Amino acid sequence: MHKKMLAPVFLMILLLQTMNAVESSDFVIQEATIDEIQAAFKQNKLTSKTLVQFYIQQIRKLNPVYKAVIEVNPDAVHQAVKADQERKNKVPKSGVGLHGIPVLIKDNIATKDKMNTTAGSYALLKSVVARDAGVVEKLRDSGAVILGKASMSEWAHYRSTNAPSGWNARAKQAVNPYVATLDPCGSSTGSAISVAANMVSVSLGTETAGSIICPSSANSIVGIKPTVGLTSRAGVIPISQRQDTVGPMCRTVTDAAYVLDAIVGYDKNDAVATRKASKYIPKSGYLKHLKPGGLKGKRLGIMRDYPLFGFGNDTETLNKFEKHFDTLKQNGAILIENLEIKNFIHILILMFNGKDIALAAEFKVALNDYLKELVTSPVRSLADVIAFNNKYADLEKIKEYPQDLFLAAEKTNDALVTPYEQGSGVLAIGGYPGISVPAGYDKNGDPYGICFGGLKGSEPTLIEVAYGFEQATKLRKPPPMP
């Protein structure tokens, strides 16, 4: 071969080797947990750089189908290389927890970097945030790699009641990876889909009323909706200060506990809520509550007959969940079958009348405050956003919203058990936590979850219950290849 031909051939071979490098390791990245990834790091079977490059390839391959990622962080590989070097130099806190682990951030959570924070809207494209969101700052402190921004329902499903779940102007319609025609549900759709389809290790979502619990159920992942204030909302494009919360969306309860440990705690930029909720954080962290036999002795309230919340008398639903009730009992849980919810009629009224009016008013105030803090932005108020979208809506005046009307269950119960995402509205009104765990797949292959909810600060108990159920069933499976 002529010498002039050797250079291009050599370069081509080198390029192919580089492209295949992420698949040449003995370690299988698909479905790998944080513990497995950290073990591979320590055994020199994997680097954070390789892991990030793998996920970037996955996004390039799958995102045209699933529309789950809005942007990839151009600095992600650099952050991974830094993590690898820190681990090599044995920097304190390196090689544990989220250090070197790629995380996708929902696009309504601010990152002070080269990426946009837009809530899926062109209206906020090229706006400049003042700082990282509080939870992002904590992720960076843990050594996590910010892989990119996850797609979402535009304005957290608050632009229009008619828009389908998972649609936004920037990324278009997100698609459920299990069954393309199935509603991906809620607004944290990209966060759920990307984790389910192995486009990232773990992700962050946000919830006002169902936007973590619902997509977690519909996309067969674990989602934790924390007590309001347990995680900072500073730097999160808001809807309601009463109900907004940020939480983990992962493939296992263990991974979700790792993420929760990293992002909880006081933040001066969300001082009132985070100071109040900090008393609920266990000193030993949440990983300590991943206990074998976590279901033993737990009192679980089963909602059967309440409309829109219970398991009801529907044969299909009962067939899905009766076997799980048996599993809970076989693993030591005590089921409270005739659970009564105080003020249930008032809760229904609030959910279908007062809640929407209250959220509309709170959204205007909270969004205007967020937009005013931006360093630069094409829009500075809700009115600007409405004008941008060429639509207008009058916001109704409301009376003071009653704060203490709600009680989900008697305090003698450790957790409330509901099917799918049906308990999310109840939990939202009280600012209470919930965990969705994969519970199976129906005859069409549609995933569904089971939700464990509790009173404020009950995350340690809920993690024990959710982990116990997960380990007893191990139902989650990855989606089929597109």
From TrEMBL:
Keywords: Signal. Coiled coil: none annotated. Residues 1-21 form the signal peptide. Residues 51-372 form the Amidase domain. PANTHER family: AMIDASE (PTHR42678), OS04G0183300 PROTEIN (PTHR42678:SF34). This is Amidase domain-containing protein. It comes from Mikania micrantha (bitter vine).
